[in-house]
Structures are given as structure tokens and as C-alpha cells.
């Protein structure tokens, strides 16, 4: 208690105290007894959080709940929803894939998403500060999360750069990838051989856009067009995040909503195209036997994991700018459902368009093979008796061709392979699985060349990709900047600009002519395994080290209601077990699959799988090791007291709130001296606080205290203001037995 406090002055005075209690209280500051901790019995059934972080602690805040929801939706809904989910749905049983995906969304996705939202909102700091606060020995979780954000941001913005290049190329008619270029050789004009062997869209992607080399070992120098596109992409990202949520929040109003406008427009237009229904029917025809394959469940779990942006730090960073009593449980369910429905919407759009493309390609196949048959008839290789009488070559339908093809194959069984005829089955075209850049920059662009007013749809499509990528990049950059700005007193604008400049310079690796192969490498190795390890450690640190019951009580104090008891079991047992199985499956998959990449071979005009050279293989494993290195390093350093526990790295706003809590405690203790008779003694009237009942018992929960795995809480004076302060004793992991 301060030396100049009124109670101490009265104790040290030799004057006889004659004031009544009413006189004493008249000289004190008025108290709001409805909200004061002195009102232990006034608000029946209403629990007051033991540690209250003031709303006006100087930390930036969202302008509205809508802005925050759009930011979380923009971060979680990204390019993967458009070009990864539809591919997995097609590959893993069509409509049957939705069953394991939805189950895993309920038992892994929503609980872990809720967990990240809750810890960010409660502690009001970025990923590094949150895990330093919960358990300093596991403070490396936040650092690993930041490392992964850096790796992903480097190559993710390259994809936005590619979209920017295609966006500007779309302002011309016909589209530049509609036809193969013509090469003039003197008086002779021939089609570019590489394009003739592949397709116009494939040639434009690999040769005119990337100008790719045949191996990862051939650098080929910088691609100037892609370098400028990457520069534009980083300028856009920098402008969006330079003011923190003050600038990125406004950008999210457009970047999060515009993709939905485009998707709905594409869906309506796609359903009007011939063959779109065939694509959608093929997509959602369930192959129930696929549900029994472990690979399907593993890929569904991985997609759930990455679709919500778990472990990146962006979710925690965004939620840290919320009010302390925000209903983050509602937010977790809402954003997860929106993400799932967006994936379904994108799948409908993709397969409506690919169904149209499959019909176009199938009709083209029928025409080409019908010309071959006519040639064989004219040269008497085939007899006219093999052609059914009702077949009209000038209006040949796919069913007529299938009948004719079957007759010729049966009669000419021995010599049929030499004829070179193709079956031209629509199902075969629909079964051609395409994902990633192959879907966005080859298959989809080829389909759009057949649209009426194709430049308009191309501009809309690539502008949508830019906005989808921008929303995810804003979340990724926030996951990098927020933890650093919380821990160190640096100028936000200067730090953001420096990050973008460094990222652009590092990103030059991806705009070489061989840069596409490095994008594949980073996508395969920099995030998958490290992020899974980060998330399982997040889950274990909260559920087993801090304690699930204690965390549930914190949620009740923060939200004003008790979360469903199912979360207790999901956080404690189900989610950790699922994540352990996922990590094991990922490691096994990496061990049995030869590390390599699909290289574009110019002479063959097709992709060929190639193994990584030794130096590239070392780079792959270095990405994994560097991303996970902070985990053991921080643990060992803090175990042997070689590193500060992070308590001195609190943000200025958080330190202010702590000091305000301590000041409030002194004032409350002074008032208790007057009302209760001696310092630290609270009035005895009023009901006791109801303990939180859990399956493991009915022990009352402690509030969230920092450094829980050290037992060196620097706020234990603020944890229980009604209890006399005792020396700090080491805290052990909570027992739920």
C-alpha cells in the first residue's frame, strides 16, 4: 500500500480517531458498488472476471463486428477454396468426400479455431506474446508460427503477382491465350511447335508467362515481367497493412465481399452453359467406397486444417483487437460455416465451367476422329458396311460416334490399335483431375476462351483471385507484424515497409525462370509439417499444461456463459489424438513419396516428374528444420534460464492495464480495511463463488495467469484480490482426475 495512502496516514497519526464509518467514507472516492468487487452479493448469479483488461488500454480495436468477421473470413477463405477443395472433392469420391470433411471440421476445425480466437481475445497479444504468456517454455510456438508466416508470405504473393499479370493481359480481344502463335520461316508460316504439341493456354502459361526452364537447377535469370508483377503485388499488400487494422480493416470490406459477387456471377453464367449440369452431376455423384480409404480422411483433415488458417498466427492477431467480452464462440462457428459453404460454392462454379469445357473438348474429339474414319473409308482401310446406316458425318453426335467406334473396335480387333482412334467419352474428360495453378491458369482460362464476352469474364476471374489472395496475405502479414509490435517499441509504418522490402528481395527467388519449381517446394515443405506441430503444441499447452477446466472457466468469465461441455473432451482428448495421427500420416507420406517436382520439358511440351538434386533436397529439409527450430531452442534456453521468460516484453498497453489492476487492488484493499477491520479481509457476507463443475471434479478454477508452467506469475497479486498474498510456489500441470 502506498505510504501516502489515507489509511496509512491515519495509522501513523497520534490523534484520536473519532470519525464514524460514514465520515470516513465521505472522504473517499465514490465507488460503483454494482461493478465493484466489494459487491459480493449484490449481483446474484453474475460472475465478475478476476482479471479485467480495460477496453481503453490503448490497443487498436476493430471499428465494427462486421469488419472483424470480414477480416477473419478474408484470411481463411483463400485460393485453396477455389483450386484445392474442388480437386480433393473430385479425387476422393465426389459427394462422399463431404462427409469426412464435415465430420473433421466439427471435431478438429471449429474447436481449434475457437481455441485460437479465445486465447487471442483474452490475452490481447500476438502469437509470440500469447504463448509466452500461457507457457514461456513453449514460447517457441509463436516464433515458429511467425517463421511459417514468413515462408508462406514469400511465395503466396508470387501467386498474386501471376494473377495480376493475367489480369492486365485480359484487357484485349481475343484473349492472348486463345490461339497458338504463328512462327514465320521465310514465306512459310507454321504454328509454334511447343504450342501445337500441348495447347494454347498451356503454352501461354509455361512459355509466355513463366518462360520456365526444364529443371530447377537451371536458373535462367530473372523474368522481368514476373518481377514487375511481384513488385506491384507487394506494393498493394504494403499499402493494405501499413496502418495495421486501421487500413486493412477497410480493405477487407471489398476484398472479402467481392469474390462472392464474382462466384455467384460465374455460377449463374456457368449454369447457362451447355454441359454444366454434367460437370456438377459428376462432381456430387458419391463414391461411397472411397470413405473407407485412410488417404481420404488424411487429405480431408489437412484441408480442414489449412482452410481455417490454424497455426499461422493471423487468427490470434485479429482476435487480439477484439473487446474482451466478444462472443468468440459464435465467431468461430460462423467463420467455419462460411468457409465450408464458400468451398461448396467454389466447387459448383469450377465444375459447372469444367463440365462445359469437357463437352467442348469431347465434341472436338468426335470431330477429329470422325475425320480419321472418313479418311480410312476413302482409302478403303475400313469398309462402308461398318458404318451404321443412320450415321450422318455432317451432324455426328457423341452417341452415334460411340456406336460407330464400338463396331469398328469389335470387327477390327487385331488391327484396331494401329487406327489411332480415341473413344471420346465425356466421363474421361471429367475425370481429368486438375488443381492449383493448373486449374486457375490453364483449365479455367481455356474454358473462358469459349465464353461469350470472354475478356470480361477473364478480368472478373483474375480480379477475384487477386482479392482472395490479398485477404489471406493481410492475415499472414498481420501474423508477422502484430507479435513484433507487441513485444518491441518500433514504428508500425516503418517496420511494415521494411518487412515488405525484405520480402520482395527474398521473393526474387520465385521470379527466376525456374521460380515456379521453388514455389512448389515451399508449398510442399515450408508449412505442412511445421504448422501441424505448432497447432498440436497449442492444443496441448492449453488443454494439458494450462488445464482444460481452468481454460473453460476463463471462457465463462470472458463470454458470460459456459461453453458446451463437448469442447472439454474435444480439446482434451479428441483433437490431440487426431493431430497426432495427422502428423504420423504426414511423416509417413513424406517418407514413402519421392521428393520431386513436375518440370515442364520444352522439347516434349509436357510435364515430367523429376527428383530434386541433392542441394534442393537439402533446401527442402532446411525449410522444415528452420520453421520448427524455435520450439526446442526456446524450451531449452528457458529451462536452463538462458532466456528471459518474456514477461518484460509486454506491450505498453498491456503493462498499463496491469498497473491499473494493481492500483485498483490497493484502493479496494483500503476500502476493505475500513469495512472489514484489517487489510486483506473481505466482508464475510454474500454467497461464495460457484465452482466450475467438470467431469473430473468440482474444484474452483484459477483465472488465466501468465508463466503458468513456471509458477513465476507476475500477476499473482491480481489473481485473487480477496486472498492474502503468499510466496509464489511452482505450479504443476492441472490434473483432471
From TrEMBL:
Locate the transmembrane regions by residue number. 68-86, 98-119, 146-168, 228-246, 253-272, 300-321, 333-354, 456-482, 494-513, 525-546, 567-592, 612-637
Supply the alphabetized keyword list: Glycoprotein, Membrane, Metal-binding, Sodium, Symport, Transmembrane, Transmembrane helix, Transport
Q: Does the keyword Metal-binding apply?
A: yes
Q: Name one GO cellular component term.
A: synaptic vesicle
Residue numbers spanned by region Disordered? 676-698, 717-737
Binding sites annotated in the UniProt record for Na(+): 74, 77, 81, 339, 468, 472
Which InterPro entries does the annotation name? Na/ntran_symport (IPR000175), Neutral_aa_SLC6 (IPR002438), SNS_sf (IPR037272)
- Among its keywords, does the record have Cell wall biogenesis/degradation? no
Composition-biased stretches (Low complexity):
720-737
Topological category with respect to the lipid bilayer: Multi-pass membrane protein
The places in or outside the cell where this protein is found are: Membrane
Q: Which GO terms describe its molecular function?
A: metal ion binding; symporter activity
Which residues does UniProt assign to the signal peptide? none
GO terms in the biological process aspect are:
alanine transport; glycine transport; L-leucine transport; proline transport; sodium ion transmembrane transport
Return the SUPFAM superfamilies for the record. Answer: SNF-like
Q: What is its main location?
A: membrane
Q: Which Pfam families match?
A: SNF
Source domain of life: Eukaryota
Q: Which family does it belong to?
A: Belongs to the sodium:neurotransmitter symporter (SNF) (TC 2.A.22) family.
Spell out the protein name for this chain: Transporter
Originating species = Oreochromis aureus (Israeli tilapia)
Lineage at the top is:
Eukaryota, Metazoa, Chordata, Craniata, Vertebrata
Question: Which gene codes for it?
Answer: SLC6A17
Amino acid at each position: 500500500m502506498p505510504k501516502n495512502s489515507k489509511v496509512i496516514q491515519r495509522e501513523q497519526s497520534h490523534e484520536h480517531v473519532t470519525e464514524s464509518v460514514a465520515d470516513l467514507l465521505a472522504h473517499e472516492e465514490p465507488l460503483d458498488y454494482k461493478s465493484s468487487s466489494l459487491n459480493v452479493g449484490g449481483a446474484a448469479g453474475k460472475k465478475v472476471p478476476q482479471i479485467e483488461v480495460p477496453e481503453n488500454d490503448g490497443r487498436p480495436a476493430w471499428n465494427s463486428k462486421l469488419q472483424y468477421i470480414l477480416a477473419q473470413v478474408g484470411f481463411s477463405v483463400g485460393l485453396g477454396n477455389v483450386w484445392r477443395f474442388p480437386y480433393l472433392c473430385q479425387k476422393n469420391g465426389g459427394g462422399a468426400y463431404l462427409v469426412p470433411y464435415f465430420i473433421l471440421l466439427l471435431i478438429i476445425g471449429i474447436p481449434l479455431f475457437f481455441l485460437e480466437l479465445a486465447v487471442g481475445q483474452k490475452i490481447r497479444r500476438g502469437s509470440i506474446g500469447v504463448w509466452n504468456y500461457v507457457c514461456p517454455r513453449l514460447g517457441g510456438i509463436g516464433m515458429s508460427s511467425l517463421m511459417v508466416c514468413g515462408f508462406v508470405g514469400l511465395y503466396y504473393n508470387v501467386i498474386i503477382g501471376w494473377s495480376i499479370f493475367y489480369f492486365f493481359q485480359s484487357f484485349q480481344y481475343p484473349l492472348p491465350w486463345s490461339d497458338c502463335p504463328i512462327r514465320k520461316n521465310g514465306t512459310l508460316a507454321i504454328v509454334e511447335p511447343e504450342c501445337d504439341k500441348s495447347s494454347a493456354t498451356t503454352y501461354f502459361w509455361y512459355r509466355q508467362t513463366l518462360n520456365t526452364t526444364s529443371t530447377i537447377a537451371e536458373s535462367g535469370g530473372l523474368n522481368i515481367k514476373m518481377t514487375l508483377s511481384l513488385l506491384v503485388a507487394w506494393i498493394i499488400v504494403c499499402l493494405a497493412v501499413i496502418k495495421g487494422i486501421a487500413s486493412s480493416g477497410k480493405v477487407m470490406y471489398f476484398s472479402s465481399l467481392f469474390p462472392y459477387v464474382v462466384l455467384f456471377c460465374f455460377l449463374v453464367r456457368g449454369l447457362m452453359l451447355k454441359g454444366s449440369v454434367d460437370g456438377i452431376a459428376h462432381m456430387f455423384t458419391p463414391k461411397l467406397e472411397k470413405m473407407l480409404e485412410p488417404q481420404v480422411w488424411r487429405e480431408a483433415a489437412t484441408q480442414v486444417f489449412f482452410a481455417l488458417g490454424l497455426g499461422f498466427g493471423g487468427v490470434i492477431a485479429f482476435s487480439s483487437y477484439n473487446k474482451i467480452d466478444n462472443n468468440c464462440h459464435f465467431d468461430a462457428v460462423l467463420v467455419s460455416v462460411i468457409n465450408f459453404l464458400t468451398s461448396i460454392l467454389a466447387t459448383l462454379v469450377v465444375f459447372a465451367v469444367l463440365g462445359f469445357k469437357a463437352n467442348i473438348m469431347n465434341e472436338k474429339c468426335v470431330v477429329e476422329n470422325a475425320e480419321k474414319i472418313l479418311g480410312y473409308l476413302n482409302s478403303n482401310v475400313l469398309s462402308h458396311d461398318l458404318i451404321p446406316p443412320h450415321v450422318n458425318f455432317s451432324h455426328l453426335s457423341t452417341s452415334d460416334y460411340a456406336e460407330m467406334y464400338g463396331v469398328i473396335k469389335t470387327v477390327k480387333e487385331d488391327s484396331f490399335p494401329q487406327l489411332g482412334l480415341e473413344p471420346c467419352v465425356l466421363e474421361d474428360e471429367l475425370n481429368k483431375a486438375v488443381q492449383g495453378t493448373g486449374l486457375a491458369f490453364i483449365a479455367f482460362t481455356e474454358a473462358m476462351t469459349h465464353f461469350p464476352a470472354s475478356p470480361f469474364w477473364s478480368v472478373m476471374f483474375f480480379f477475384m483471385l487477386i482479392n482472395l489472395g490479398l485477404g489471406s496475405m493481410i492475415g499472414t502479414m498481420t501474423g508477422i507484424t502484430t507479435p513484433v509490435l507487441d513485444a518491441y517499441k518500433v514504428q508500425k509504418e516503418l517496420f511494415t515497409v521494411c518487412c515488405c522490402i525484405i520480402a520482395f528481395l527474398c521473393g526474387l527467388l520465385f521470379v527466376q525462370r525456374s521460380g515456379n519449381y521453388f514455389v512448389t517446394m515451399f508449398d510442399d515443405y515450408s508449412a505442412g509439417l511445421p504448422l501441424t506441430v505448432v497447432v498440436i503444441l497449442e492444443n496441448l499447452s492449453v488443454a494439458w499444461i494450462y488445464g482444460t477446466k481452468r481454460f473453460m472457466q476463463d471462457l465463462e468469465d470472458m463470454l458470460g456463459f459456459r461453453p458446451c461441455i463437448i469442447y472439454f473432451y474435444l480439446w482434451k482428448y479428441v483433437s490431440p489424438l487426431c493431430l497426432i495421427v495427422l502428423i504420423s500420416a504426414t511423416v509417413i507420406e513424406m517418407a514413402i513419396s519421392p521428393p520431386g517436382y513436375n518440370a515442364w520439358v520444352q522439347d516434349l511440351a509436357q510435364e515430367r516428374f523429376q527428383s530434386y538434386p541433392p542441394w534442393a533436397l537439402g533446401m527442402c529439409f532446411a525449410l522444415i528444420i528452420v520453421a520448427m527450430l524455435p520450439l526446442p531452442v526456446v524450451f531449452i534456453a528457458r529451462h536452463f534460464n538462458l532466456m528471459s521468460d518474456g514477461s518484460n516484453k509486454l506491450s505498453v498497453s498491456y503493462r498499463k492495464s496491469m498497473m491499473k489492476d494493481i492500483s485498483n487492488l490497493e484502493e479496494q484493499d483500503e476500502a476493505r480495511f475500513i469495512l472489514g477491520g484489517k487489510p486483506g479481509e473481505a466482508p464475510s457476507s454474500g454467497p461464495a463463488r460457484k465452482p466450475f463443475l467438470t467431469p473430473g471434479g468440482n474444484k474452483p478454477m484459477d483465472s488465466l495467469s501468465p508463466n503458468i508452467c513456471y509458477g513465476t506469475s507476475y500477476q499473482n497479486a491480481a489473481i485473487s484480490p480477496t486472498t492474502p498474498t503468499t510466496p509464489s510456489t511452482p505450479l504443476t500441470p492441472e490434473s483432471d482426475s
